[in-house]
Known about the structure:
By secondary structure, the protein is mostly beta strands. It has one helix at residues 21-27; strands at residues 3-8, 11-16, 35-39, 42-44, 59-64.
Amino acid sequence: MGNMTILLNSKPYEAAEGTSLAAFVESLGLQPQGIAIAIGSEVIPRERWAETVLSDRLELMLIHAVSGG
Length: 69
C-alpha cells in the first residue's frame, strides 16, 4: 500500500491508498458535525463518507457550516 496526496482546499495532505473520506476526516482531527465535504461540485452526504474511497490527487472542498441566528 502506497501513499497518495489529497488536496483539501488546495492544501496537500498525505493519506494511505484506499482511505475512505470518513477515515481521512478523522485523521485530520476534524469534527464531522458542522462541516461538509465536496468532491468537485458535489457535496458528499455524511452517511456516504465511509463508503467513499479517495484517490490520488483528489481535490476536496471543506465547507464549514455556520450556525447562528
